[in-house]
What does this fold into?
Amino acid sequence: MNIPFLKFDKMHNDVHSQLYQAFDDVIKSHWFVMGKKLSQFEDEYASFSTTKFCIGVANGLDALILSLKALGIHDGDEVIVPSNTYIASWLAVSAVGATPIPVEPNINTYNINPSLIEAKITSRTKAIMPVHLYGQACEMDEIISIAKKHNLFVVEDNAQSQGAMCKNKITGSFGNINATSFYPGKNLGALGDAGGITTNEEQLFEKVKLLRNYGSKEKYYNLEKGMNSRLDELQAALLSVKLPKLIEWNSERNKIAEKYTEQLQNIGDVKLPQLAKNCTSVFHLYVIRTLKRNELQEHLNKLGIGTLIHYPVPPHLQNAFQELNYKKGDFPIAETIAETALSIPIYPGLTDEEIIYITNSIKKFY
It folds into this structure.
């Protein structure tokens, strides 16, 4: 049996004719940037996120950078980030001249540990950037409480968790301003690079709109040094087609995750993902951990099962951040996750037969 790590077939088949119609609509409109399709999707995604505003941008990294810029974070400032995350979270902080200050995760949930945040706050700290990693909501009540106590901004990195909840409140609605990615592999994915920002604060909404469009409200008149980061009409139209299916697709991911969790209990040294109290996951990824990760990955690959490692090198050990002078052992939990984590296939359309084949193959290894 051949099971790739990710397949789009089921999702795209669900909305095939609507995607083609949306494409045709954009072609016939002769309007490809900053038009009605973008405004429509922004309204729809703001409603989904239960926020007042959404701003479509070019990609998830730009969404983070623009969020930090809108808050006025710059050279000399510090931003609390998880020690284990995709490097984009750190890159956004360094892109505005600030310094990422890592905090270790809870090893069971993979998300930033709120109890460790306060010890890293200094006079230069301006914001906390929780990352809802692998699809699971962070413990936002605790994080928001710390931010309020220390008068800090909160910027959610919601790239992997569109639709996850913490105490019945959706991710992307907690922070002052929040960033997401619509990269094709995300739960809500465009057919190219795309990103978005959500906020309830009108001042931040207006600031980001300015910054994403060359710092301009009126063409050829530039109020600030902005950038070109606009979600184009085609991707916005395609996302509008997909958005009404997101809850259904997330539900299917949860059902697959439940089957994995049931089948993989007490198998060798396999550690399964756990949810924080009062938090849900949309299972962008299903990440297990084992000390025999590399051997297990090779075994599954030989059996035709695609896997990935999210992520093999934590940000503090990446060459890109060598100027921070971190060394191996500085963030042992992040390093342990990097050395033991393995993501197995999870996507709408994964069949029961395929799930059994995957779980039996893991059992066979042990």
In short: Residues 9-244 form a domain with the Aspartate Aminotransferase; domain 2 fold (CATH 3.40.640.10). The CA atoms of residues 267 and 363 lie 6 Å apart.
